[in-house]
Write a structure and sequence with these properties.
By secondary structure, this protein is of the alpha+beta class. It folds into two domains: 120 residues, no CATH class; 76 residues, no CATH class. It is 29% helix and 29% strand. The chain has six helices and twelve strands. Strand 10 and strand 11 form a beta hairpin. Helix 1 crosses helix 4. The longest helix has 20 residues. It is elongated. It starts with a strand and ends with a strand.
Length: 238
């Protein structure tokens, strides 16, 4: 039996809980004793903080300047790519970040168009941009940099918890379909009775521990699918 822990939470609630969980997991993975978010002033600080969180990272070279006024760096963070723009001072950074509205329709006084949903953070001497919908990436960066300056616009869109995004991605890969073709019917927080998330494979030994996670109901190609995940979507089963 599994215990349903809550109905679908409000976006702000799950984002706070999951961000705290993501940061805590990263600290444990790195063997650190940090008691709060790291202090990020520069690009190098951010790279070090991501590495300490246990996430793979790689420098991909130069990022387009656009309206940011400085040459940025494109960085691979786990499955996502982000752009980081570093300024000479926090005041110089503020001069640009203050021009970005919550909808991110302009940067530095120039119109801005994005291929997907933009998420932008401003901290210390850096502006960090992630364009996409990977919930885990958003939560990781928010845990390191605080709320994004696009937070108000994002809150109105009620994004899914990262576990739902992970479930969609896994089902799309299994079925060989576009993730955009998968419909979310619902999801609920549950306590799984074991490390196999209530879905052991034949002959698999599962540790009998309570594993908080999600039961997610999806529809693809006219068929309904139930997916089990852990709290952050790092483990997905069906």
């Amino acid at each position: 039996m599994t215990a349903d822990r809550a109905a679908i939470p409000a976006p702000a609630s799950w984002k706070r809980l999951a961000a705290a969980a993501a940061l805590s997991l990263g600290i444990l993975a790195a063997g650190c004793s940090r008691t709060g978010p790291p202090e990020v002033e520069s690009t190098d600080d951010l790279i070090e903080a991501v590495r300490e969180s246990g996430v793979e990272i790689a420098d991909l070279g130069v990022a387009p300047t656009d309206g940011f006024g400085v040459v940025g760096r494109r960085i691979q963070v786990g499955p996502a790519e982000i752009d980081v723009f570093e300024y000479e001072s926090a005041q110089a950074r503020q001069a640009i970040s203050s021009t970005i509205p919550p909808e991110a329709t302009a940067v530095g006084g120039l119109p801005a168009a994005w291929p997907d949903r933009p998420h932008i953070w401003a901290e210390g001497r850096v502006i960090v941009v992630y364009v996409g919908t990977d919930g885990g990436t958003v939560l990781l960066l928010s845990s390191l940099l605080g709320d994004s300056i696009t937070e108000a616009a994002e809150a109105g869109e009620a994004p899914y918890p990262p576990a739902v995004t992970a479930a969609i991605r896994a089902l799309a890969q299994e079925l060989g379909v576009d993730p955009g073709a998968i419909e979310v019917l619902g999801y609920e927080a549950v306590d799984w009775p074991d490390s196999c998330l209530g879905l052991p494979a034949a002959g698999e030994a599962c540790a009998e521990v309570i594993a908080p996670g999600w039961r997610i109901h999806l529809r693809a190609g006219g068929a309904d699918h139930e997916v089990h995940t852990d709290s952050l979507g790092t483990a997905v089963r069906r």
